[in-house]
Write a structure and sequence with these properties.
Shape: globular
Number of domains: 1
Strand content: under 5%
Distance between the termini: 22 Å
Order of helices and strands: HHHH
Helix content: over 70%
Number of helices: 4
Radius of gyration: 19 Å
Length: 130
Amino acid sequence: MPVLALAASLGASLCWAVGALIAHRPATQLGAFEFTRTQLISSSALLIVIVTALDAWPSVTWVHWRSFVAASLFGVVFTNLAMIACLRRGGPRRMQLLVSMSAPIAAMLGFLFLGEACIDKGALISPGRP
């Protein structure tokens, strides 16, 4: 695995863990709905500022806006509410444990609903080995 990819994945994991630790107290004090509302408004404003500063609006295609809205609603709002509620009740360690289940669940859903195939046995043999 290239060093940059490994460093990026470790950095992302570190950011998720630190973010959970930082967010625990405000999420507990504000509640899941208020914390999620504040988080989504501030991140949307930051995204708008970055896209405007980089003059990247022409690169946005609005052909799939309905899918974008549905994905935002389910993937950001509902899951964020559930994650913050879990953070409030279980704490940062338990929340991170549940978040780590997203990869196997995504693999299962891809297999069931998208018709993705399992890994074939030939892919497990490294090149140069019989």
